[in-house]
Amino acid sequence: MAKQVIISPSILASDFARLGEEVTALDKGGADWIHVDVMDGHFVPNITMGPNVVAAIRPYTAKPLDVHLMIAPADPYLEAFAKAGADHLIVHAEAGPHLHRSLQAIRALGKKAGVALNPATPVEAVGPALDYADLVLVMSVSPGFGGQSFLPASLERIAAVRKMIGRRDILIEVDGGIGPANAAAILAAGADALVAGSSIFGAKGGYAAAIAALRKGAK
Ligand code: DX5
Ligand code: ZN
After folding, report:
1. Inter-CA distances, 74 with 80, 113, 182, 203, Å
2. What is the CATH number of domain 6-218?
3. What is the pTM assigned to this prediction?
4. CA-CA distance, 67 to 122, in Å (whole number)?
5. 39 and 48 in contact (C-beta within 8 Å)?
6. Annotated domain spans of the chain
7. Which of 57, 110, 176, 189 has the lowest tally of Cβ within 10 angstroms?
8. Is 169 annotated as catalytic?
């Protein structure tokens, strides 16, 4: 049986004035996880939300909150995001010199530990830390903004990460420029989970239809 793709819609593209309702609508529309993009205006050239926002949306879904930390340093904020109700905490390999320490700290907080890779970072950067990770997030655009085009070289990078993971129990998530047209290629390269912002929030016909279209595209 073909593996079931995990869909993690990014609320970066949602209506922030109605964030709770948006999260519930994604949940009811069939999202598997809810992707939360945290940006600090320093690691990436944009500012979004912090632990308070994670705590505010927590009551609106029982599904995993997939929190992508585009912040440096990340370590001082891990506990606050964990307490706010994050389920996955994803730090960037480029965000600090001590990746093992960050991943160990996340696991010690009882959360799934993820490591993200910018498109220009050699995939080998995560190799030594794989025994401490539950998730690898391959960025398929430069982080900071939604609505960018998928970088084609990401496919080879996903395959390389898959090879490095080997038999470890680690999921590969891919983030940026994903829609029904490229989902199958991304899955075929070795991804398990797809993040999607614009292709879900920009679609006509509602979130359930957009999530279904992404699932269908991934087949
Ligand atoms: C980019 C973020 C993404 C973004 C994806 O920095 O990490 O999660 O919201 O948006 P789309 O799907 O529009 O590329
Ligand atoms: Zn993201």
Report:
1. 11, 13, 31, 33
2. 3.20.20.70
3. 0.98
4. 23
5. yes
6. 6-218
7. 110
8. no
